[in-house]
């Protein structure tokens, strides 16, 4: 978890902050631990093995999911005309650091600040259908169907959940594919 914090909360976060500031914005980099911005709970996965009495909980390490967002911290940054750049590291129930999927953090923050729109920038073509073609528009019913069929899985699953959260939170969610732009950025020498 130390390496995750150094990379996401340090190197990557500060690079994004610098890019925004160099473009005329006023960004501030934080992690979910700063000011207890993101309270998290450990993510639990269960599986049922043949011959077992019931489902068994699988320990997947220091991985979490958003429990709550400290709106006062966000408001103080936004009221000061700062753009918060939030590394997806939350505070667990015992003060431990938990790594959280960045899409789910973005969705949680958007809900808590009553955002009108959430834009997810991804290094994939977006949410893909059963033929691996990008889906331009996705209804709640279609998303739920594709999830239950196992078509939406892996890294696409959090993006679909963000879209479903958007429907619940009354904000619009958009996924932008930046494959051709992000690849040179992250692989520059």
* Proportion in helices: 25-40%
Number of domains: 2
Please indicate the percent range of residues in DSSP E strands (runs of 2 or more). 15-25%
CATH superfamily of the largest domain: Acetylglutamate kinase-like
- Number of helices in the DSSP assignment: 6
List the helices and strands and how they pair.
Layout: H1 2-22, E1 27-31, E2 38-42, E3 45-47, E4 56-58, E5 63-69, H2 71-79, E6 83-87, E7 89-91, E8 97-100, H3 102-112, E9 117-122, H4 140-148, H5 156-169, E10 172-177, H6 179-186
Parallel strand pairs: 1-6, 5-8, 9-10
Antiparallel strand pairs: 2-5, 3-4, 7-8
Helix pairs in contact: 3-5, 4-5
Structural summary, described in words:
- The chain has 189 residues and is α/β, with parallel strands linked by helices.
- The chain folds into 2 domains: 1-100, Acetylglutamate kinase-like (Carbamate kinase, 3-Layer(aba) Sandwich), CATH 3.40.1160; 102-189, no CATH class.
- Helices cover 38% and strands 25% of the residues.
- It has 6 helices and 10 strands.
- The strands form 4 sheets. A 4-stranded mixed beta sheet has the order 2-5-8-7. The protein has a two-stranded parallel sheet with strand order 1-6. It has a two-stranded antiparallel ribbon with strand order 3-4.
- A hairpin with an 8-residue loop joins strand 3 and strand 4.
- Helix 3 (102-112) packs parallel to helix 5 (156-169) and helix 4 packs antiparallel against helix 5.
- 26% of the residues are buried.
């Amino acid at each position: 978890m130390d390496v995750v914090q150094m990379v996401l909360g340090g190197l990557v976060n500060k690079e994004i902050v610098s890019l925004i500031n160099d473009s005329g914005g006023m960004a501030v980099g934080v992690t979910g631990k700063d000011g207890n911005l993101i309270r998290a709970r450990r993510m639990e996965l269960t599986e049922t093995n043949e011959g077992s009495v019931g489902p068994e909980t699988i320990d997947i390490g220091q991985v979490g999911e958003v429990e709550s967002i400290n709106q006062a911290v966000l408001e103080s940054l936004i009221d000061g005309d700062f753009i918060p750049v939030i590394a997806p590291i939350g505070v667990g129930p015992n003060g431990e650091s938990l790594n959280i999927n960045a899409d789910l953090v973005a969705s949680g923050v958007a809900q808590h600040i009553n955002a009108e729109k959430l834009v997810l920038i991804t290094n994939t073509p977006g949410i893909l259908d059963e033929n691996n073609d990008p889906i331009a528009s996705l209804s709640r019913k279609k998303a739920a169907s594709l999830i239950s069929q196992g078509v939406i899985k892996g890294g696409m699953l959090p993006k679909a959940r963000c879209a479903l959260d958007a429907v619940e939170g009354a904000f619009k969610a958009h996924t932008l594919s930046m494959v051709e732009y992000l690849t040179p950025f992250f692989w520059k020498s």
